[in-house]
Design a protein that fits this description.
30 helices, single chain, 2 strands, mainly alpha, two-stranded antiparallel sheet
Length: about 700
């Protein structure tokens, strides 16, 4: 009876009132937590049957809850002890695996080989933006307390102390360099790397020199046991680890600030590194890796275990990082703004690992320290002088406030971010460059008016607009990269490509016209040569954009005309068939409103932007391909001439565009041949082949 009364008293705290969800104020009588329901002898009692019976009386959507136990608490509590949500819970298999861990276990060389290879997989997975708790911290040797262990000594556990721990410690010291770079806030959580809420140590008591000595002694020990299984493979791991660790130390921003030649020395170490995934992966050791190690650490949210990169892919990732680090030395030796632009275009296309991208941004601008051979301000000043005949008066006041340098560096930091973010931020940078162009134009008007008091300083026919011409040139480059970057990221639907390449064509047309204007106002052989080198790529890209625009327009027209036959198989065809022309253009105008910045109301603006379809409506399909072929022929000629006059800054970019032009030319020729064959076979009817853009829209 007493038990029933206690039970009823406990249930009286439950409520069906929605207002009861509010937690009473702390300190009030109602705010005190009730005593748990127990029997007179202090034992818990089972109320499952009572709760089931009470629940059966509830209407749909009703809830019984304790005043102090909110819905939020209920949702959080579901994770506890549920293997589907509680990432730290140990199942029976997990508990068995954890129980096998023994730091004093006597290891064979093949067992040490297996641990070293799995640790390399953890490290490369971490570089690919995984959390420490999902990768390196799962290795118990990596997180073990090594105080008092005879590491580097021929102890009773020689393989552990002479071979495995030196590899583990060297891995941690190398990761310390990487973590230091991650901590510079050049990267973005979740998108680039999982920083987590823990502060890693990475064997802080060991310096790079200590780790290098340990690896050297490990190699000597392994050479003594060369004939045993696993020894040769471990020697290769030790050697590659030494080269990798030395390279990371030499390529750190602090070291390059002290010694500009450190970058070249670091690359020399990387070139000596040889990594190959062995056929014999060693003998697995139970208990060494704990996939649910996160239960031992305070984390803001549950972290799911993650699959590690496979062995061969792991080696490829390490080799790719070593190759990408060559960009650091190229950045240190950058010779001009154009060289810098081409380099960051290459970086943007290659999309290196987060560590390499952060290191590149640090190299470009590390607080007040400049790692580059020439300061950014000197690069910009020389770029303006080399491209336009700017008098000292025009440059003195403009460079005094430092805005142009800040915006200049922000742009390159944008290009070094991950591709999706780089494209998003680039559009924000466009607004900054647009405002900067207006300020530069006013500064140029003031400087020209001071130089030539009797002339109209606001007339572009008289005023060459020195600094603002260069700013507009850079703004157009940013727009072109952001617009076409979405193609590589597949953010555009198929039916949007014609308008994208139409905008790109208009952008390159404006850019080429602007460079011609600068060429006319920039006397001198050096300036003419610089403008020619810059203009070559712009004109080649213009011709390639024209060709791509024509091809995409051709396919869109075929898709529109044949939409009724393909509407069940193509969402793009359905959209094009049902959407009115005015609605389509309105949608384009909204989505691509950033392109309107080309027509900003400044002295250097170009007017007359039109919808792409209006230019091509009268062209028939074979004519579209013919015009595309002519455009690509012109691009090939331009790039062929550029190869004869290229410099170290744009050589690789010229080669890349030449390869792209060759492939695109093959696409055009193949489509011409295919169109002729389809017409002969009757698959493509003459009416479809000869339809104009206006007729296609009318048909729709």
């Amino acid at each position: 009876m007493a038990d029933s009364e206690q039970l009823s008293s406990g249930l009286s705290g439950l409520s069906l009132d929605a207002n009861a969800a509010e937690v009473p104020e702390a300190g009030s009588a109602e705010g005190q937590l009730p005593e748990p329901i127990v029997t007179s002898d202090g034992e818990w009692i089972d109320i499952t049957t009572l709760v089931d019976r009470a629940a059966s009386e509830l209407a749909s959507g009703a809830l019984i809850k304790q005043t102090h136990f909110t819905l939020f608490d209920a949702m959080m509590s579901v994770e506890v002890m549920d293997p589907r949500l509680d990432m730290g819970i140990l199942t029976a298999d997990d508990a068995l695996e954890v129980s096998q861990w023994d730091i004093d276990r006597q290891l064979t060389l093949r067992e040490a080989l297996w641990v070293a290879l799995q640790l390399l997989r953890c490290e490369m997975t971490w570089h690919g933006s995984a959390s420490l708790l999902q990768t390196l911290y799962t290795c118990n040797y990596f997180t073990a307390n090594v105080d008092g262990l005879p590491i580097g000594q021929d102890s009773s556990n020689a393989v552990r102390d002479m071979v495995l721990f030196p590899i583990v410690i060297a891995t941690g010291v190398g990761c310390r360099y990487v973590w230091s770079e991650f901590s510079r806030y050049n990267l973005f959580g979740e998108e680039d790397v999982q920083m987590g809420t823990i502060e890693p140590q990475f064997f802080a008591d060991f310096s790079q020199h200590d780790a290098d000595i340990l690896l050297y002694e490990a190699r000597m020990y392994l050479e003594f046991r060369m004939n045993e299984p696993g020894a040769r493979e471990l020697i290769e791991i030790v050697d590659s680890r030494r080269h990798w660790l030395r390279a990371l130390g030499l390529l750190s921003a602090e070291r390059m600030i002290e010694d500009a030649s450190a970058a070249a020395d670091g690359l020399a170490e990387l070139r000596q590194m040889h990594v190959a995934w062995p056929d014999d992966e060693g003998t697995p050791v139970r208990g060494v890796f704990d996939p649910k190690c996160m239960r031992r650490y305070a984390a803001a949210a549950p972290i799911k275990p993650r699959e590690l990169i496979e062995g061969p892919a792991c080696v490829q990732e390490l080799e790719r990082m070593a190759k990408d680090l060559e960009l650091v030395e190229s950045l240190v030796r950058v010779e001009s703004v154009e060289h810098l632009v081409y380099m960051f275009q290459k970086i943007h296309i290659r999309a290196p690992s987060p560590f390499v991208r952060s290191l590149l941004m640090t190299t470009l601008a590390n607080n007040e320290h400049v790692v580059l051979a020439e300061s950014p301000e000197a690069l910009v000043r020389r770029a303006v002088l080399e491209m336009v005949a700017a008098p000292p008066r025009a440059l003195a006041g403009w460079f005094a406030n430092g805005d142009i340098i800040r915006v200049f560096l922000d742009w390159f930091r944008t290009l070094a971010q991950n591709p999706p973010r780089a494209r998003r931020v680039a559009y924000k940078c466009l607004g900054t460059w647009d405002a900067l162009q207006g300020e530069a134009e006013q500064a140029d008007i003031d400087a020209f008016g001071a130089e030539h008091p009797g002339r109209d300083a606001a007339d572009p026919a008289q005023n060459p607009f020195w600094v603002s011409s260069w700013v507009y040139h850079m703004k157009l480059m940013l727009l072109e990269g952001a617009l076409l970057g979405g193609v590589r990221l597949h953010v555009y639907a198929a039916y949007e490509l014609p308008i994208i390449f139409g905008y790109a064509t208009q952008g390159f047309e404006a850019h080429a016209a602007h460079l011609d204007r600068m060429h006319m106002g920039a006397p001198g052989a050096a300036r003419t040569q610089r403008l020619q080198r810059v203009g070559v790529l712009v004109r080649a890209q213009r011709e390639m954009a024209v060709a791509t625009w024509l091809i995409s327009h051709m396919f869109e027209r075929l898709l529109v005309f044949r939409a009724p036959w393909h509407s069940k198989h193509s969402d793009a065809a359905t959209v094009l068939r049902l959407e009115s022309t005015s609605a389509q253009r309105a949608r384009y105008a909204l989505r691509f409103r950033h392109v309107s910045m080309l027509g900003s109301p400044t002295h250097l603006s170009f007017d007359g932007w039109c919808a792409s379809a209006e230019h091509l409506d009268e062209c028939l399909l074979p004519e579209l391909l013919g015009h595309a072929q002519n455009a690509l022929s012109a691009a090939r000629t331009i790039l062929g001439d550029a190869k004869d006059h290229r410099d170290s800054g744009n050589a690789s970019v010229v080669d890349a565009w030449a390869d792209a032009c060759r492939l695109l030319y093959a696409v055009v020729v193949a489509n011409l041949v295919a169109m002729a064959r389809l017409q002969q076979s009757g698959v493509l009817r003459a009416k479809e082949l000869m339809v104009s853009g206006a007729a296609a829209l009318e048909y729709r």
